[in-house]
Queue: 3 jobs
Job 1
Amino acid sequence: MGTNQQLGRRERKKAQTRKLIADTALRLFLERGYDNVGVREIAQEADVATATLFAHFPSKEALVFDQDDEQEQRLIDVVRERPEGTSIPGALRGWFQRMVETAREEPGLAEFHSLIESTPALRDYSAKMWLRHENALAAAIAADIGLAAPDTASRLVARTALEIIPSIRSLDEAARIIDVTFAFIEAGWAATASPATG
């Protein structure tokens, strides 16, 4: 067996273990409440060592947000791979709208969002997680308009967009919040971006 095959198998096994741990944790949290479930219990239920759990997740809160890296990459792709003629704020608005539509269609997501909103530790972690993506998103916006590093405008677009995440968990208000926020972002972007910016 070649080294690449071994590496591929090892990576698949790691991904499967990570998913098993995250799925087990979420199921237990939804059944009994986040504060009523311990890390050792999750490891035992997933049939892994506690050390293995912590090798995949640095904290108990991280167990709930196992797709953190994928979300960041999706945000960057929204900017880089947007259709020609679509502004950066327009592409981000569309991404947020699709995210809300998906949440409406998947009943499990409402339960997931309710868990986050009802648990202060998860609410705080979620807010910090999304704002961590601010630098990556601002860098992608800056690169797209030909800057070596994010300027004030690209940082403001990234921060203002990401700060709405906690607000749109309440799906009833989500569409209005997205519309108002992105009308504000688009106006600011148009006023500060050069004609060459997208």
Job 2
Amino acid sequence: MPRKDFRIVLTGGPGGGKTTAVDLYRREIGDKVVVVPESATLLYSGGFPRSVRSEVKKVAQKAIYQIQVCLEDAQAVEYEHRLLLCDRGTIDGAAYWPGEPADFFDALGTTFEKELARYDAVLFFETAAVGGISIEGGNPIRIESLELAIELNQKLRALWSQHSNFIFIEHDKSFLKKVYNGLFELQKVVGAHLSAKAVIQDE
């Protein structure tokens, strides 16, 4: 059965500002949206080990994927009349997978195309690392170096940019300006969807 909900994924390299943007937008728009939290943060903050071993990384990405799917589906049912704002999406794991992206989808028994179809729009927040700005920000879960953050940013962009409704939020030396730009684009996507939905309901 086709999905009834509308899903927007906010993604990008580490330290891009997506989590800040999604939290601010949720506070602003209220009960029209619900946030699907970042599954990796939930997993690692709960005690799951972070390791340099490839096999552990693979197990972690499998767990993150399953948590992400279950969170999205649960929120879609619990808040059936709201838009879903997803802090990262199921495709992100392919960039963190120690190997080729295709191996990630094979290991999870899914396809790249199927995962892209889970989302109606993608807002990609470019990492601040491209500007040489620290991405640490007091988050103990974040352990990436600037070099790794840039590498992950490139991998993630290569994957997500294949979505038909891909929106790129460029790095800016002003974090506030960048977040504002992201919120502006997010509001355009949400506004367009709500307007289209209203027209359908009036017919």
Job 3
Amino acid sequence: MTLRDAVPEDLAAIMTLERASFPTDAWSDAMMREELMSPHGWYVVDEVAGRVTGYAGLRAVRGAKDADVQTIAIAEASRGRGRGRALLRALVAEAVRRGVHEVFLEVRADNPVAQALYASEGFLEVGRRPRYYQPDDVDAVVMKLDARAWSVAQTPSAEDAGVCT
């Protein structure tokens, strides 16, 4: 399994996953193409044996102190193996590299697995958007992460690294 930057040639594979993961509210090809080309976006794909099995996107305007996780999707057959966490961590690490202080996301209120993943990485619920996901009438749970604190928590201490002082 390999994470790499998404390129425009990944669009067809990304859209296949997009439609499978979000059947009622998938983005259009044009919307995703714009995201892949945007200077404010950063998309990464997860590949297994040359096949895209997941993707994720971040919107982080250079110089801004906040960023948004746009999307994360994993092929059904690849779920439950830590790939979503790897993609999420890659997005947050990129946000930190861009100088972001806070990372936001929206997650469906009826997706407790995703909510648990985000909470386990330090995201906290900060609000709700009623009936945000259409046409399903599902609320969005708005979550926020302190990216700087997350970054510090990811850095192993000398003790954790087995260094004797």
